[in-house]
């Protein structure tokens, strides 16, 4: 493509997240347009395409990826569809923004990482949007400036109002806890070496059999401790809080919207977001704008991403796999990962 033309994006999967990204690209993002939409439910894609000038439906996702009039792909299909669609993007040399998770298991994530490395060009960015959230960036900047001293502890809270009916206990790890895995790696700049998940008495409002809430404990390679509460059926609000405790101070994000307890008089209360699209709307905007800018300049520079890469997706999958194992036994499980240096591009050989 030429530098002056808008990036032509194919959005695959136009459910909740994909439709939100289509609106974002069409109304907020500069330098790009949605040229193609695709969905397993064709009528859904057709209804959306009809609202966007110059947008077509392509019925087969692999045809949408291969389409010569598509410059880049945004994958917002469910996790199990990602592997095949990512490999197709690599085969056709198409830059791709893949909503988390990269894939739903470690082996396929590693295969994607290895295939991309064989190309010698990074084409895959993973949608860990919190890295673009202004509050998280502020926390990271403070921590990395050394003003908190060396970090010792990280405390995280991740609460959702509700989850779709198909959500099971392992999905709480792979779809929800995965964000805290990435935040931990992003803030602390090191890998997670072991995971333990314990499950207290379940919330009576949770669907039968759903082990919710869950408490995850991570240990990092340098011996730091991270604890996470994931609670996805609160029925109340979308609450994401992170606190870093360092040797010379601590800092917390996620509180500026106030605590909510509207039913009890006399308790401090305030506005709080109900959904992730509300809480992280700005993060998604920044994430997609920076990706579009990176891809457009990438056709000149060969660098098509500006954010978490396929390795970050693989590392998260490895931690989540250990988490799912721990969910079964309650024991601490060591995270099994290959060395990053073992992933070699043709230039390294
Ligand atoms: N970053 C975030 O905060 C965030 C938030 C929500 C969802 N997500 C991720 O976004 C992705 C989509 O989630 P969602 O909540 O929008 O799901 P969704 O179920 O609302 O939408 C998925 C859409 O993909 C379609 N689809 C299913 N299989 C397909 C296939 N093989 N090819 C093409 N289309 C297919 C479905 O018909 C549906 O319209 C998931 O990977 C999810 O983890 C990320
Ligand atoms: O897919 C969603 C999304 O990733 C949200 O950011 C997270 O809070 C939810 O728990 C998860 O189900």
UniProtKB/TrEMBL annotation:
Belongs to the Gfo/Idh/MocA family. GO terms for biological process: inositol catabolic process. Involved in the oxidation of myo-inositol (MI) to 2-keto-myo-inositol (2KMI or 2-inosose). It comes from the Bacteria. Its EC number is 1.1.1.18. The keyword Glycoprotein does not apply. It catalyses: myo-inositol + NAD(+) = scyllo-inosose + NADH + H(+). Residues 7-127 form the Gfo/Idh/MocA-like oxidoreductase N-terminal domain. Residues 136-251 form the GFO/IDH/MocA-like oxidoreductase domain. GO terms for molecular function: inositol 2-dehydrogenase (NAD+) activity; nucleotide binding. This is Inositol 2-dehydrogenase. Homotetramer. InterPro entries: Gfo-Idh-MocA_inositol_DH (IPR050424), Gfo/Idh/MocA-like_OxRdtase_N (IPR000683), GFO_IDH_MocA-like_dom (IPR055170), MI/DCI_dehydrogenase (IPR023794), NAD(P)-bd_dom_sf (IPR036291). Keywords: NAD, Oxidoreductase.
